[in-house]
Design a protein that fits this description.
The strands form 3 sheets. The chain has a 5-stranded antiparallel beta sheet with strand order 2-1-9-8-7, sandwiched between helices. The protein has a two-stranded antiparallel sheet with strand order 3-6. It has a two-stranded antiparallel ribbon with strand order 4-5. The longest helix is centred in the C-terminal third of the chain and has 18 residues, at 270-287. The protein is 40% helix and 18% strand. A hairpin with a 2-residue loop joins β7 and β8 (239-247). The protein contains 10 helices and 9 strands.
Length: 291
C-alpha cells in the first residue's frame, strides 16, 4: 500500500491538485486512504444522499416514485442541464426527476426532490447510516445563490480571480454541504450491499448511478468493456469530485471516493479531471493485490 499511496500523491501533484481519496473492497473491507477522513465539499456528490433518502421513503411507503410533479419554469433552480435548461412547463414522475439528477447532475430536478422529502430528511438518512461527517446545509438553489452572492458584481467572470475564489462559502466544508471520502465509500458500500435500502430499491439506486453520462473522470481510469463503473460527479470552481463503484467480471467490487481542489481557477483542466480516474485505478489495483 505504501507504493500505491506514493503513486497517488505523485499523480495528484502532477495534475496540479490537492486530492483526498478513500477506496474500499465492498466485500472484504480492505481499504486504502489518502486523506480519507479530511472534510471535503461535496457539491453535486451530495445528490447521492438525496437519492438514497428518496428511495428509503419509497420503501417505507411515504411516497410513490411514479408520483407526478409539476415543474414550472419560474420555480426551477437554474443549471446548464435538465430542467434548469428547459423553457417550458414540465410534468414528470419523481423517479424520472431522480434520473435527471443523477445522469446529468440536474440541479432543478434535485431541488424538486428536495421539496418533496426535505433537507432534514437527507440529514436524518446520513446520520442513521453512520455518516457522522456528512451534512447538508443548503438546497442546491441556495448553494448556487451563495456563489452568486460571494462572487459579487463581477458575476461568473469573477470566479477566475483567486481572491474571489478564496471567499466562496461553497468551497468551505465548514459552511456548506460536506462529507469525507470515507463517509462516501461507506454510503456506496451500503447501497451495493442492500443495507441502505431493501433490494428492490437498492437495484434502482445502482441502475441510476450506472446511467451517469460523464466518462472523463473516474471511468477514464477503467477503459475496459468488462469493467463497470457507476458513480456521481461534483463540480465547482477549482473543485472536481467523483464517487463511484467499480465492478470487475470476477465479482470484485470497490467503492472509491476522490475529491480534488485545483490550484488553477481555469474552468477546463483535463488533467485535473483525468487524475480522478488515474488515482482510482491505482487504489483499486492495490486492493486487488497489484501494488
Amino acid at each position: 500500500m505504501t507504493r500505491a499511496l506514493a503513486r497517488i500523491r505523485g499523480a495528484f501533484d502532477g495534475a496540479g491538485v490537492t486530492g483526498r481519496l478513500h477506496a474500499v473492497d465492498i466485500d472484504s473491507g480492505a481499504e486504502i486512504s489518502f486523506g480519507g477522513d479530511h472534510p471535503v465539499v461535496t457539491a453535486s456528490v451530495h445528490k447521492l444522499c438525496l437519492l438514497v433518502t428518496l428511495h428509503q421513503h419509497a420503501a417505507e411507503g411515504r411516497l410513490d416514485l411514479t408520483e407526478q410533479t409539476e415543474c414550472a419554469p419560474a420555480d426551477r433552480t437554474s443549471g446548464p442541464t435538465g430542467l434548469g435548461a428547459m423553457l417550458d412547463p414540465v410534468r414528470m414522475s419523481l423517479r424520472d426527476a431522480a434520473y435527471l439528477m443523477m445522469a446529468v447532475s440536474d440541479n432543478g430536478a434535485a431541488d424538486v426532490l428536495l421539496a418533496r422529502v426535505g433537507l432534514d430528511a437527507v440529514n436524518d438518512t446520513t446520520a442513521r447510516l453512520g455518516l457522522t461527517h456528512t451534512y447538508a446545509v443548503h438546497t442546491f438553489g441556495e448553494f448556487l445563490a451563495t456563489i452568486k452572492e460571494d462572487a459579487g458584481p463581477g458575476g461568473a467572470q469573477a470566479l477566475a480571480d483567486p481572491y474571489v475564489i478564496a471567499r466562496l462559502r461553497a468551497l468551505d466544508p465548514a459552511r456548506t454541504n460536506r462529507s469525507t471520502p470515507r463517509d462516501m465509500t461507506r454510503l456506496l458500500g451500503s447501497v451495493w450491499r442492500d443495507e441502505a435500502c431493501p433490494p428492490e430499491q437498492g437495484a434502482a439506486l445502482r441502475r441510476l448511478l450506472g446511467l451517469q453520462v460523464w466518462p472523463h473522470r473516474m471511468a477514464s481510469g477503467f477503459p475496459f468493456d468488462d469493467i463497470h463503473v457507476a458513480g456521481k460527479t461534483g463540480s465547482l470552481p477549482t473543485v472536481r469530485n467523483e464517487v463511484g463503484v467499480i465492478e470487475y467480471p470476477d465479482g470484485g467490487r470497490y467503492a472509491v471516493a476522490v475529491f480534488t481542489r485545483a490550484a488553477s481557477t481555469a474552468a477546463n483542466l483535463p488533467r485535473a479531471d483525468a487524475v480522478i480516474g488515474t488515482t482510482a485505478a491505482i487504489a483499486v489495483d492495490a486492493l486487488r493485490g497489484g501494488a
